[in-house]
Amino acid sequence: MRTIDNVIETINKQTRSNKKKRYTRNLAESLSLIAHIPEGKQLVCIIGAGNECNNIEALATWIDKELKNCTLDQCSHLDYLFARFLQVFDEHNLIY
Fold first, then answer.
1. 18 within domain boundaries
2. Are 48 and 32 in contact, with CB atoms under 8 Å apart?
């Protein structure tokens, strides 16, 4: 019985993890649209961890870090992230 409980718990953790990754990816794609971020790798060295393949992955990495400190509800995440994104660009003296 314990083995079945462990399997169920593992599946539940994987499901939550997949939902979180999908949500983060959706936010990254939405942010790239509203911020007019082009396809490419320009953001990897600015806001990513350095191992991402493109701007969307770099945004997803950055979003994951940002949301760990965010206490807003999900409805406000995109607005918050867009404001923070602009702030980060300003802090790095980058033209947006």
1. yes
2. no
Task: Tell me the pTM.
Answer: 0.80
Distance CA 33, CA 24 (A): 14
Both tokens of 55, joined, read 């701007």
Helix axes 55-68, 77-91, angle to 10 degrees: 110
Tell me the C-alpha distance between 51 and 83, whole Å: 25
> Is 96 within the bounds of a domain?
no
Model confidence pLDDT, tens digit, residues 43-53: 999 999 999 99
Domain that holds residue 60: 2-91
Residue 46 contacts residue 94 (beta carbons within 8 Å): yes
CA quadruple 94, 61, 38, 77: dihedral sign: negative
Report, in angstroms and rounded to the nearest whole number, the Rg of the chain calculated over CA atoms. 16
